[in-house]
Amino acid sequence: MSTPWLIALAVAKVLPKKATPLIFAALGGVISENGGIVNIALEGIMAGGAFAAVVTSYRTHDVVLAIFVAVLTGMALAAVLAYFALAQSADQIVVGMAINILTLGMTAYLVSTVFGQPGASPEVPGLRNEAVLTWVALALVVVVHVILYRTRIGIHLRAVGEEPRAAATAGINVVAYRYAATIAGGALAALGGAYLSVGETHIYSDGMVAGRGFIALAAVIFGKWTPFGAAGACAFFALFSSLQIVLQGGAVPAQFLEMLPYLLTIVAIAGFIGRARPPASDGVPYER
Amino acid sequence: MRDALRHAAGPVGALALALIVSSFVMLAFHTNPIAAFGALLHGAFGSKQGSAETLVQTTALLFAGLGVAVAFRAGLFNIGAEGQLVAGGLSTAIAGAALHAPAIIEIPLCLLAGAIGGAIWGGIAGVLRARFGASEVITTIMLNYVAFLGSSYLVSGPLRGDLSAPETAPIAATAVMAPIIANTRLTAALPLAILLALYLWWWLGRTVAGYELRAVGKSERAARYAGVDPRVVIVRAMLMSGALAGLAGATEVLGLLHRFNAELSPGYGFTSIAVALLGATNPIGVIFSALFFGALQNGALAMQSLAGVPKDLISVVEGLVILFVAARKLPVGLMLARRPARIEGDS
Amino acid sequence: MRRLFILAAAAALFAGCSSGGSGSTAASGTNATGTNSPIKLAMVTDVGGLGDKSFNDSANRGLQWAKTQLGAQVTVLQSRSVTDYEPNLSTLADQGNDLIFAIGFLMHDSLNDVAPRYPATHFAIIDSDVDQPNVTSITFREEESSFLAGVIAGLTTKKNVVAFLGGIESPLIEKFQAGFAAGVESVNPHATMLVKYTGSFDDVASGKEYTSVLFDQGADIVYAAAGKCGLGAIDEAQSRPAGYYVIGVDSDQDGIAPGKVLTSALKHVDHAVLALAADASRSDFPRGNLVFGLKEGGVGLTEMKYTRRYLPAGALATEKAYEKLIVAGKLVVPSTLVQLKAFVPVHLAATK
Amino acid sequence: MIQSGPAAPPPALSAHGITKRFGSLVANDSVDFDVHFGEVHALIGENGAGKSTLMNVLYGVLRPDGGSIRIEGRDVSFASCSNAMRAGIGMVFQHFLLIDRFTVAENVLLGRERTRGGFTDRAAAESEVRELAARYKFGLDPAARVEALNVGARQQVELLKVLERDARIVILDEPTAALAPAETAALFDVVRRLRSEGRAVILIAHKLKEVMALADRVTVLRRGKVSGSLPIDRADAATLATLMVGKVIDLDAREPRRTAPGDVALAVRDLSVLNDDRLPAVRGVSLDVRAGEILGLAGVEGNGQTEFAEALYGLRPPSGGSVTFAERDVSRLSAEARRSAGMRYVPADRQREGLVLDFDTAENALLGDQRRTRRGMRLDLPLGQRLASAIDARYSLAGFDPAKSAVAYSGGTQQKLIVGREMTDDVRMLICVAPTRGVDIGAAATIHRRLRDVRDRGASIVLISFDLDEIRALSDRIVVFSEGRIAGEFAAESATDAQLGACMAGVSSVA
Description:
The structure holds 4 protein chains of 4 kinds. Chain A is mainly alpha-helical. In chain A, 74% of the residues lie in helices and 0% in strands. Chain A has a single domain (4-269), classed as ABC transporter involved in vitamin B12 uptake, BtuC, CATH 1.10.3470. Chain C is of the alpha/beta class. In chain C, 39% of the residues lie in helices and 18% in strands. Chains in contact: A-B, A-C, A-D, B-C, B-D.
């Protein structure tokens, strides 16, 4: 039962489920941060997406519509971040924190009012096979990579994130790109949330995002702000939590394995394993 | 006086705006906001018990809020107050269970242990920033999780007491901070926190070390020019910030729970960001904003039971307050000091 | 004691159709019956909160029955953190409630502090023993229902592998594990048991993933004692072909996924709450520690209306036989892993 | 040179009555300016005269409050620089707008990427840029990342950006400020080539000699107004200087010293220093400064002078060598320790370094001395107020109020505040970087007088300036820096501009 082969097989089965929501959210972070907007609201946006999907599915029994509404919700939340960061020149970290607090409160409030019971929704119609979303996530890694590095839009976006004034003088609309990137990032993070709710479990429960947004943020940094790097980091983190599920009861306490992504990220940004350097203007407000 | 009024205008405006927006949220779901806020107010200040409980919440928020504010003044964004609070609470519980001294010695020692525990946790982020230029925003977020998971491991394993819940052993009776008002949970932690706020206000404005901390926060290069080593100041600021958050955990343990539980804090560390921002990072302002958020948190229970409004709504208010305070172009925005994006000329 | 539970059972039957188990967050109803002064009941949830379809929900259901049956006025306060317990309990006491339920062992110390401050108020705590004159402690023998669940699982498993999925490791969850293992061992010496803990009571997706791994590692029945993670476990069983089951806990979770939840190990917190409320409405508060096992009707299995047909022949009879042994005190079910080691399986003639 | 009459074509670009205000400050006051195709028109003026503002208006970065712009006779109005670019204007900023992590080709073609089938076509882009670079004899590798290039090469990338768009009107903003002499010469060739291609070139400069060598016409701005505009053959350095500063200053007015230099106060031996990018900036410099002596440190900006000054003051750890001050090896001492030994410093970047802009005047008056003057752990704020008042008394700070934040003062006033704070009576060693940059003539004269005064009190002064005239007017001895080394040393009286210039250029080579 515990031959390496069987372990590998078991891990291979859990890993995509662990990795998929992280990859969506991390890709969202990659896009947003390449455009120069730090998004620490991934956690909140995931929760918002997860919740919106379940409510929609609960009311309409239409899973595709549910995912669509989740994406719209993520875009709306990201638009708030973008508006305060861009139009109000607010500190992006502060706004991200505010959105996390706001969204976690709002979803809990709405669970109570919409479902008449706090804590969790009832079971709702969900995707029959959530692996579809895993393939979507993997495809998006390639798509985002191609867009970022092989298209004009991507070059413009990275230019905006690196040196917005240079981009502006080249005729690129910095503010529009930053809005678009942040909002697209929100859409992806919300997809990650929808994967958790209508994809994997078919319910919404307060606290179900359980820190995945912050792990995704860690993956963005650990993956050096590139789609493949971030997705690889997500897979790496997912590998450890999958091993933890499969091999539980080993010598290492569960908490230590769960800590790993966070510790590795600290190590990564401290520069111990190759410096993690963000886009030059990531988090820096742009004013014309 | 007029100055004080002008400084208060922004935060009060941001608050009003947040309350208006959350009222619309309630109206959208067929709840009477006036009844809700009425119940909240009643719960927060309607009785001696209620008011005392508001002040209990205020205490933890004030300690942690001062911590976040001090870091902000040094140009640092400490999102790790929650983890530092946990580290402080755990250290205090360990000290409180191990030490057996008269209360007059034991309580200060336990508080010190909490401050040191928090300071170490904050200091790690400070050192990583000062030495390697690692963004304290990211490291403190990550350190929060390390604190949650690490303490959860410790209380379910090596440090587990003989209670049925995963908690440490109870602290010694001599370590317990007794209520200062009968039949309430209000302890001397509140006056201590207020004294610390006043001291901190004086320290920031009137001492050389406070001056240098502010200088680093405003302009790192100018501070270097003035003979200040920003790395030292950054580490010191994070140590102080962590120590203050650690004291929040320490007083929770000594005054309320009398042992450590991994779920000690209902997110005081995160709310303290709102507290620091609404207080315009001024220690005196932080006293008032801690009181406000303390009332909000405490009144939320009454709002839930009397008006049937889920208390999660106060997180909505909290989030909105932070948003509006952070807005630099709304009249309510506080024009918070721009934090430097990253360290300059680190070596 | 028996008397209490007969009343409770009747109430449950009556209320079963009307209440459906759902209640509003903080229902503060007016007196339905119109008698002079309705009793004021309240409860404080633990950090799991309402909507766990488990422990807190069960207690709330008892409270809602009390509202419809006894015309009681009820209030529910939820706790977000461990430091909320004390203010929540105090708030309810201040509001003049007659009987306040503290749901969960995490509230032990808080109640121990609060109760002496409100000598005129009566409290009850679930799952812990608080030694105060105005506190009634209610504990359950979860190991006994878990044992019966183990019996069913041991008889039903086709692969001879069953699994236990816990939430966060603690003595309470250990009771479930020990009883379950003892039950499996007693009826199926060939069965092996896998054990995993999710490390969380909230992370629904994790619960599902753990269950999936347990199934893949050969188990066909998973006993999930893991709070909301159990919802994920049930969801995983739903996505599997016939032959994979989850056993639920605390509340009747059979209906969440008919045919997939083999049975649920019930803990009749609802009955206990209602029984105590009924006593309280007559100003008769039982004192001390009330232990509810199979004998008292405090724990048990569901009637398995969706899964009966999947059980092997004689399984229900075997289960009933074990139940009799336990009720009669002839079989003492281990409640810790240490006791489990010393446990000698008791075989009935009718085992397979 | 320029024909006038009905047949003459309209100017490539003409601006009339451009007015731009920032709050109460009028940066441009009814400025007229034009440039023709095939012409280099230099725009000169002191820092703060309004040159950059005017160019930003012409390039669409700023919207003017009044006035009109015409391109080839047609009225235009630019909402952004992309409009200006579309109208054929290209600008090379003094502070390059390049993306370090992009390649040369990506930078040059930013916003105009070559695509094939919807995807970017890297090969096409690189060959195109390689071709363009070759045409102007730029030895650039299109695939190289900009972060690996030196200043001269980066400027070439900026030029390519403009040329790739085939801008007919090219604005160069102080293009030689950071260049070595050989690079400057190469740039001049490029500018001449642009002119011969029929482009209109606007050259913003502050070095009169460069203007004389390169321009066809010159316009002088002073305090936001055009103080003169004339063809180059009617201009000479003295006239232009007069137009720039408003009154005749005698460049050779050297005041005689009143005291003789004393013993060696500062001894630098084999000092090496790294810059922010950890590249060698100062390479084995040795020099002595005596008590009562002003040592002028001349050179093109960016040749290690600033790093040298920072190393002397203790802001930058030396990578090798030693600094001895007052017979004590201070190489490893902190800035604070050197300060308390009597060393003081006027930094180049007053806004970011010399002041904490959000601090009030009194707090800023204590900056750097906060520990030396402390009372126990307390800050001596009353002393700060007295010091601020004393500085105001000596330099008359416009709008002085001890409780006012430094940010509320004008740039010149800020500089006076710093200079006033640093040039105390008891200073023993003063390191000064561009002490009069951006201050008005009167204040500059005060500062110069004060420098001599401090010297005569026996202080040693290292004066770093990028204004050769300032160096020559004040120094007792002149040392020329080039590429982090001492390229030559001169007695101030005997050195000629030609000698100094040759020396500044001497050891440098094209990168």
